[in-house]
């Protein structure tokens, strides 16, 4: 017996119920046309994910219930069973899946395992469910799970399979980081193999503040083989016919059953749905396995994150400072890819310390990309600051103060353009810089979105090189790859005057930030003790700057932002 | 039989184990001198509270265990039983109380109820305990709890009393907001009365980033009467002799006992300690009931929050812009109170739109306070911006852009002073302004700490008036109270050109932010629909600004910051 299943891997807009409901209705129409038995949406698709403290607003929860009723009504006289992520409100709020068919809400499943680590705060908002839930449709028994529920040996999938489930549906909103796409495939496929039970994994796509959801939904058969896959970083609706067999594993003796006696789980809930279609031939849309290099994958994540941030916040155009360096060049390239060249404006803001080649490289890049660009010198304004502060600064030597004033004039220019023309300002700091505080607060850190904030400098170069070779053209001028990185805030300055070489710096940062290794442990791996301590000190000391910087797009396992919550006032020292 | 109990209501420095251990040792010496039976510290006193993601660093957890061992060794040949908050690490991390006597760790209690709402993220870090714990000392049975554990009907206090506990010890780190001091007294006193069981509540004091811990530890007898109280907003060590009686309530039949059978709680843990002292006479230090007006209470909270932020982050002096308006005047006053007049520098930065009275009022205030102050005009620098942007802005009318440029020049000045002289910049925006975005990002929002960020404009005036009357002198000049609030960024501008009257605005904000009321509900209370919608729109639209503003001191039930986690990308609308 076959079940025909449609996965709606779509982009929700957070809080835009009308928009989301329209998308849901269109997907229902498609599934109905396809004669699909089941249509599955991502986790919390009705509200968008994650709604954060909007969940504390009763009015928001009510609007969500109204929207659900609107969807339920729309399914009248339709046959496909719909699994839709929404917030259910009983004595508490639950991250839930509505089970809908033919104008009726057949049941509601509540997510059991609520992640409260990394970027997740689900225990802040939701009460956990404790009822494994199984739908019978035709002769098939279908277990329901939401995201985290399958990412642990103690989730309800185990109970559901024990109770006879022959297929597991999973509604997900799993944010991207590099490596996670492969991790998901391996994990879900191993799980299906382990339980000899197919899994339908439907993930969200789209950008939401710091997070990018990459889609990459998968359907895995009972042998752990991936039979269909949603497009990465794009909306996709795929339909698959899956053969459903009796699951012999469900008869195995299991010591975890005592959890039921102990009241760990409530008894399972069984829901009866109508099977309206018969399918015999195997239909599979959704190409299997999209392979990408690391560089391409991160580039696409950044493009999607930027595009959705700009569009969902109602901006059309973006503006950024072009220094002729690699960071701003890569951000310009990402912006053009995301928004089109007509929506990207580059501003060259040379100072007395800017080299001729910087201006030329930035111009060349702008011309290669075909973007509007302007040159506004900061020299005159800088001199007027010098005069204004002359009295109060006399007898004090020049220091970083004068460098920061320059960076802040540039910030003021870009914000003025933003105010006057409604552009969103993009900042161009990378992760190595964000980590070490090698940036000026309110200066080059001024802007609405920090596009490459989570990308190390060494990766920036690799992605840039990949981009040029992808385009088959030196859009990012060769000279930008060759010259040593510099902030150009004083004569002959280079980054390596104050920072260790980026190959060393980035690896120390990765160990310190992503792996939370002690300074000692990093030294044991062969790095110079003084260097490691210096880097750790920079990271710790610059928490105050990061706290005021714009949000950036998470592409690593541990990004600055919601993912890493360090106190500012902090006298803990490993250096 | 009497127990002599010492409460160490002290200020920990987050992550500074050496400092915290020194304080612990001194308190142990005092308790020993006092011949106290028990010495109780606040929650997580060893690490400081809240350590946030430092808890994810294994090296931090190890350092915490080393520091604990250091304390344990120090108690050798001493008699007082010590209850110390630390992080216990077994298969998981726990928010714990160490039970220490005479060089031995007699036991460890794990907090049961882990708050994960408001500013709290304890489920991110800790696994909950499930063993109610009772210490016998002399003939007394002493139940242990940590903070939240007593703030719910389902905490372990209930079990402990049922198992015979005659007194409950509570280690707390309860952050201040206005109203909480009274709430705590009422709640703890009601709880003691309810169970006919004395409670010793020892709270942290000191500032940590957004949070202020106000101390106000209390000892409540079995009739619910407060018998001793720690000083508000100050360190205090108080000692109390409490008479311990058999608790008859512990024999009551209780339907919740079935939780034990259900495995909800593990069986209670009993710990035997030595009773080394005999006390007959009633000793009580710690004055009962410190009464303060709302204005005084908030003022003191801000003074403590500011002082600790400055000192714990290694700053000596602060600098702020003085506009001659009420907000910056009050911040100057708070800074002088916290740091001394010699550590506060005021900068007057008049533009072409600044009125004569603004400059005079700011000067007058500086003279009254006796603080260093300087005048640096922004006019010339502003003109240089106008020239630099002339080309790109031609054909576009003047608008908010030009106002923001002025504010950002001021921000750049203050940051330059910060960079050159090592001052911390204080920002002066109030809650009404922060809520509505009536401030310039990177302009008047530039700085390290936003002192009055959580205080509504209407309260600002009240606190200022209280301050003058407290000092018995018009330190804040009368004219500042009288003139209409204005940003003075264009001719004849006042706040009320774009904002509703502050009495109305603040009440709408309170309902919208603190109570999460729907726009509709606020309108039902008699506010004009268009006004409420306008305010709600401003609040929602300015989330991006708040995200990049400096942290501020929480003094309300719901502050901007960790306490209110709204998405920036958010199309949910009630307006």
Automatic annotation (TrEMBL), chains A, B:
Q: Which amino acid positions bind ATP, per UniProt?
A: 321-328, 428
**Annotated residues for binding of deamido-NAD(+):** 404, 433, 545
Question: Could you identify this protein by its name?
Answer: Glutamine-dependent NAD(+) synthetase
User: What function is annotated for this protein?
Assistant: Catalyzes the ATP-dependent amidation of deamido-NAD to form NAD. Uses L-glutamine as a nitrogen source.
UniProt keyword Protease present: no
Q: Tell me which residues this entry annotates as catalytic.
A: 43, 111, 147
At the top of the EC hierarchy, this enzyme's class is: ligase
A Pfam cross-reference name? NAD_synthase
The record, for InterPro entries, names: C-N_Hydrolase (IPR003010), C-N_Hydrolase_sf (IPR036526), Gln-dep_NAD_synthase (IPR014445), NAD/GMP_synthase (IPR022310), NAD_synthase (IPR003694), Rossmann-like_a/b/a_fold (IPR014729)
Keyword list, A-Z: ATP-binding, Ligase, NAD, Nucleotide-binding
Q: Which organism is it from?
A: Thermosipho ferrireducens
Provide the binding site for L-glutamine: 117, 174, 180
Question: What EC number(s) would the UniProt record show?
Answer: 6.3.5.1
Q: Which reaction does it catalyse?
A: deamido-NAD(+) + L-glutamine + ATP + H2O = L-glutamate + AMP + diphosphate + NAD(+) + H(+)
């Amino acid at each position: 017996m076959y079940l025909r299943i449609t996965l709606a891997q779509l982009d929700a807009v957070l809080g835009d119920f009308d928009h989301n409901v329209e998308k849901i209705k269109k997907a229902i129409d498609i599934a109905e046309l396809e004669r699909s038995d089941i249509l599955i949406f991502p986790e919390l698709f009705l509200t968008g994910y994650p709604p954060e403290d909007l969940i504390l607003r009763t009015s928001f929860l009510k609007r969500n219930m109204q929207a659900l009723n609107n969807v339920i009504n729309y399914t009248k006289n339709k046959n496909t069973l719909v699994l839709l992520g929404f917030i259910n409100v009983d004595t508490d709020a639950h991250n839930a899946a509505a089970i809908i068919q033919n104008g009726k809400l057949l049941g509601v499943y509540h997510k059991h395992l609520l992640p409260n680590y990394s970027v997740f705060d689900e225990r802040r908002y939701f009460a956990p469910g404790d009822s494994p839930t199984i739908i019978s449709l035709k002769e098939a028994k279908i277990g329901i799970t939401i995201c985290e529920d399958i990412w642990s040996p103690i989730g309800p999938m185990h109970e559901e399979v024990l109770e006879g489930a022959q297929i597991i549906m999973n509604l997900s909103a799993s944010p991207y980081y590099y490596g996670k796409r492969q991790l998901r495939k391996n994990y879900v496929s191993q799980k299906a193999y382990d339980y000899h039970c197919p899994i339908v994994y439907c993930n969200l796509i789209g950008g939401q503040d710091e997070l990018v959801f990459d889609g990459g939904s998968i359907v895995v058969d009972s042998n752990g083989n991936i039979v269909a896959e949603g497009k990465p970083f794009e909306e996709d609706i795929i339909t698959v016919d899956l053969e459903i067999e009796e699951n012999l594993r469900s008869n195995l003796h299991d010591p975890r059953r005592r959890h039921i006696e102990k009241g760990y789980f409530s008894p399972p809930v069984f829901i009866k749905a109508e099977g309206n279609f018969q399918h015999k031939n195997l239909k599979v849309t959704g190409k299997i396995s999209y392979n990408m290099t690391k560089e391409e994958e991160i580039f696409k994540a950044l493009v999607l994150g930027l595009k959705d941030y700009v569009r969902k916040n109602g901006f059309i155009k973006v503006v950024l400072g072009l220094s002729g360096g690699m960071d701003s060049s890569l951000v310009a390239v990402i912006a053009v890819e995301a928004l089109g060249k007509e929506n990207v404006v580059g501003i060259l803001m040379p100072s007395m310390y800017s080299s001729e080649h910087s201006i030329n490289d930035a111009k060349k890049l702008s011309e290669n990309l075909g973007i509007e660009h302007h040159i506004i010198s900061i020299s005159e304004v800088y001199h007027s600051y010098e005069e204004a502060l002359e009295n109060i600064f006399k007898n004090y030597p020049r220091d970083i103060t004068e460098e920061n004033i320059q960076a802040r004039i540039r910030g003021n220019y870009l914000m003025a353009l933003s105010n006057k023309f409604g552009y969103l300002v993009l900042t161009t700091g990378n992760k190595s810089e964000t980590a070490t505080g090698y940036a000026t607060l309110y200066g080059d850190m001024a802007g609405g979105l920090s596009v490459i904030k989570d990308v190390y400098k060494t990766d920036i170069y690799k992605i840039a090189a990949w981009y040029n070779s992808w385009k088959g053209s030196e859009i990012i001028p060769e000279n930008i790859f060759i010259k040593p990185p510099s902030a150009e805030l004083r004569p002959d300055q280079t980054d390596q005057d104050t920072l260790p070489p980026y190959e060393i710096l980035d690896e120390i940062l990765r160990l310190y930030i992503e792996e939370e290794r002690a300074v000692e442990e990093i030294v044991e791996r062969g790095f110079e003790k003084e260097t490691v301590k210096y880097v750790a000190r920079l990271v710790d000391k610059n928490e105050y700057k990061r706290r005021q910087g714009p949000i950036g797009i998470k592409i690593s396992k541990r990004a600055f932002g919601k993912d890493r919550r360090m106190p500012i006032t902090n006298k803990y020292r490993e250096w």
